[in-house]
Amino acid sequence: MSSEKRLLLGNEAIARGAWEAGVCVVSSYPGTPSTEITENIAKYDEIYSEWAPNEKVAAEVAIGAAVAGRRAMCCMKHVGLNVAADPFFTASYTGVNAGLVFVVADDPGMHSSQNEQDSRFYGLSAHIPVLEPSDSSECHSFIKLAFEISETFDTPVLLRITTRIAHQRSLVEVSDRVELPKKEYKKDPMKYVMMPAMAKGRHLFVEERMGKIKDVSNGTSDVMPSKINFAEYADGKDGKLGIITSGISYQYAREVFPNASFLKLGLVHPLPAELIKSFAEKVDELLIIEELEPFIENFVKQNGIHNVKGKELFSIFGELGTAAIRKAYYGDALSQEKLTEDVSVPPRPPVLCAGCPHRGIFYNLSKMKVRVSGDIGCYTLGALAPYTALDTCVCMGASISMAHGMEKADLIDKDAEKVPTVAIIGDSTFMHSGITSLIDVVYNKGASTVIILDNSITGMTGHQQNPTTGLTIKGEEAPAVNLLKLCEAIGIKRVRVEDPFDLKGMQAAIKEELAADEPSVIISQRPCALLKKVNYGAPVAINSDKCKKCGKCMTLGCPAIIKKDGAYEIDATQCVGCQLCEQMCAFGAISK
Fold this sequence. Notes:
By secondary structure, this protein is α/β, with parallel strands linked by helices. The protein has 19 helices and 22 strands. The protein is globular. Residues about 335 have low confidence and may be disordered.
């Protein structure tokens, strides 16, 4: 078997390890920071890969493939596991045939997420083992180990990574793919049909299974002797400081405390009680360093070890880091000298791209002073200045359901003035979880106005295909969902397609649909300006002789329009020629 070393992202390393492990089916939904795993999987022709409409569907596809006898994987970000929780929990009871692994990327610090969530608790609650790698090399080896655990103990396995692990690069020793025969499928309703009577028996199996995996965690298993969790003892005085940690926190702690003793955890559920007790007895001072929740700390204290410091030093908020750990432990006075000087960095808030088809929508909505129920996507930026158009944003697909709830709440007081409300949702998010919400509006006689922002791609995670684009993850042609016909089939009688670059036309359409006493859908249809196939022609420019310096064009919030020395200019390197600003100018000062 050939091998070589490569510098890989954590996500790339997971994809490579899965390929080497003989994985045959991968179904996922894109979500930062997990997206690149499946994008890299798609490069391997030996693996069938797909973007599913949502994480629940993706999980069920992977479960089905594993039951049929092929190793399967499902990848998502942390909030995606909320969507997939239903099949995830029950798959713990059914177990597997071939190996089944869920890869979940948590996002401490909320770089691209609406909450901070610790997915280790999902493994605890579902009785599913959880592995947590600390670099790309472990991403590569742990994904292989996850499939080994899965098939050895008849269990799904959760591989939990975080943003820093997903997007850091380190050396990985890669090797060839192992081709595995398809496992024989045997009809077994007592194992795979989770009616109450069968589920009761499988629950007993799950508890027995977790007992066996505890031996793996403690390094005492005869079935799988792998040392996933291990102690590293240091000599001398500094070695009396013991640190229990895992994942990226291990890398941070190693840098801050190079001479300390470490209990490095790779299998974080079930945790190794015996190994932890033994380690605690051999050190004078015990620290637990982990991001987000006190998952390890709670377990340690529940096992009678109370002379330990954890979250009273290290925050439950956001990411840790060497500076944060050093300051928390040593304090300002004793902390190591600053590695860099304090620099005042000007804020750089995220903005809609130049030429974004959502810009005109939010400009109109901000002028109309309507209540806007928002959703997850690029268009969430409509909550920021200069639009401040969004009123809510909770989760994928919630915009339509929440708008319906707002409408019904308003109707309780029949004498109260109706608050005009619009739901905003993207094409990919509508496929993900908006369809059932729209069905709820029709079925329960709502009158919501829904705007589907159809930009012909899943934009928020970097241009992935979805069921409306007509292409698969591998770029193969596929049937494209017709949004207009789908809405009509659901029961929406008022469906129209509008151009978001036509400011006046779109404003008139929104007003007309808000006035209707029945549910309606406006499909705002323009492709993302960053797609390679999109070309709106030459950029526009401002004629300084005609410009009255009124600043009206600036209210669009387009990053290509700048004010310099009291005058307005358009940055030709950013402008894509959408001509929205041309419509804004009452003096004809802007043109191509």
